[in-house]
Design a protein that fits this description.
The chain is an alpha/beta fold. The chain has ten helices and six strands. The longest helix has 15 residues, at 192-206.
Length: 225
């Protein structure tokens, strides 16, 4: 007897009903995909992501009430295990990098074909990252970052991890200093669950596999001292 493929639970978010319903219907025909809900704006997306616990959210950017970038930030902040794939018409650098800083694991343009979208959902659900071919070079440059300046030449306000929120940088600094999650929770007056979620979000945004790799990255950038 063959083992059934695990079902990928997907939330589709777009303010255009024809596109939203069409994409949901298309994804619903894929054997290992279940569309658990749809939303027409970012605020509804945040609420449904919290209630439905999808594996992946397909997120538009330009939407009423709350835009897709802020919705992505809130969803990944609440539930770092939820992967967000941005699917939009916009390919300007500001929007692309804002989405990445917010925690998106994928960024595709609406011209992507159905197979590309489905493969992207599977990839991000498995912990990977996916970006459309036309954005690949810019994304690679973004993650590579600028070459480090010689010692003593870096500006005092340089931010080595611009994709992290202020809270996430604070937590990463304590991780790099060798603090455990319970110690971080006590120092920052946070709940243990909030710290666990924050640490997971940091790992996802830095694309590191574990705590040891995060510590190396952070200490190389001057944190934890």
């Amino acid at each position: 007897m063959s083992t059934a493929e695990p079902v990928l639970r997907v939330l589709v978010v777009d303010d255009h009903p024809v596109y939203r319903d069409g994409l949901a219907a298309l994804l619903g025909t894929v054997a290992d995909v279940e569309v658990v809900g749809t939303a027409a704006d970012g605020a509804a997306a945040v609420e449904q992501a919290r209630d439905l616990a999808p594996d992946v959210v397909v997120m538009d950017v330009q939407m009423p009430v709350l835009d897709g970038v802020e919705a992505t930030r809130r969803i990944t902040g609440d539930s770092p295990s939820v992967a967000v794939v941005v699917l939009t018409m916009s390919e300007d650098d500001d929007t692309v990098f804002a989405a990445l800083r917010a925690g998106a694991r994928g960024y595709l343009l609406k011209g992507a074909d159905a197979d590309e979208v489905v493969q992207a959902l599977r990839t991000v659900a498995a912990g990977g990252a996916v970006f459309g071919a036309s954005l690949a070079v810019r994304i690679a440059q973004y993650f590579a970052g600028r070459a480090p300046l010689p010692a003593g030449d870096a500006p005092a306000d340089a931010d080595p991890f611009p994709q992290l929120t202020a809270r996430e940088r604070e937590v990463l600094d304590l991780v790099a200093a060798g603090r455990s999650n319970p110690q971080i929770a006590e120092l920052l007056f946070l709940s243990p669950k909030t710290v666990r979620n924050c640490v997971s979000n940091v790992f996802a945004k830095l694309h590191v596999a574990d705590r040891a790799e995060a510590i190396v990255r952070a200490r190389d950038a001057g944190l934890g001292r």
